[in-house]
């Protein structure tokens, strides 16, 4: 796609190309509003979460459609990592950091949180979204421990 060209959608039922503002496929009548909201704006949860959580996210109607709610945000990073990694080769530094980040992400997923960002030597995770839990703050605390 070239810069300045119009955006197009493709119908999932008949593969007809449609303008971005289309609500229904002109060829088969398939509604495409939901396709655009879920498919084009967000990556599939399978690409960034364990299978058991991805399944829960996909079956949660509010996770797909969106709603306003209170959540808990957890930010965790590795203390002293700059001193540890300062004189190391970037690939060697990545080999040291990756197992630590994996353990951090596993802790988040264990309590059904979602890792929102990985930033260098830390992560930002959400609890209570996209999966709603009344005890989202407690889950974030458990993951942090």
Strand order of the largest sheet: 3-5-4
CATH arch. level architecture of the largest domain: 2-Layer Sandwich
Largest sheet features: 3 strands, antiparallel
What share of the residues lie within helices? Answer: 25-40%
- Provide a count of the helices: 6
CA distance, first residue to last residue: 46 Å
**Element-level helix/strand string:** EEHHHEHHEEH
Low-confidence stretches: 34-41
Number of strands: 5
**Average pLDDT score:** 81
Radius of gyration: 20 Å
Structure write-up:
The protein folds into two domains: 33 residues, no CATH class; 76 residues, Alpha-Beta Plaits. The chain is an alpha+beta fold. 18% of the residues are buried. The strands form two sheets. Strands 3-5-4 form a three-stranded antiparallel beta sheet. A two-stranded antiparallel sheet has the order 1-2. Helix 5 packs across helix 6. About 6% of the residues have low confidence. It is extended. It starts with 7 loop residues before the first strand and ends with a helix.
């Amino acid at each position: 796609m070239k810069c300045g060209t119009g955006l197009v959608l493709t119908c999932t039922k008949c593969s007809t190309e449609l303008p971005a503002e289309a609500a229904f496929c002109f060829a088969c009548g398939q509604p495409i509003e939901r396709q655009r909201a879920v498919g084009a704006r967000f990556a599939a949860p399978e690409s960034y979460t364990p299978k058991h959580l991805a399944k829960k996210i996909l079956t949660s109607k509010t996770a797909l459609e969106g709603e306003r709610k209170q959540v808990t945000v957890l930010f965790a990073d590795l203390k002293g990592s700059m001193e540890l990694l300062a004189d190391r080769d970037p690939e060697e530094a990545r080999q040291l950091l990756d197992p630590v980040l994996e353990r951090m992400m596993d802790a988040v997923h264990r309590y059904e949180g979602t890792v929102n960002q990985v930033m260098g030597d830390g992560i930002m995770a959400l609890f209570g979204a996209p999966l709603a839990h009344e005890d989202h703050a407690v889950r974030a605390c458990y993951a942090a421990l």
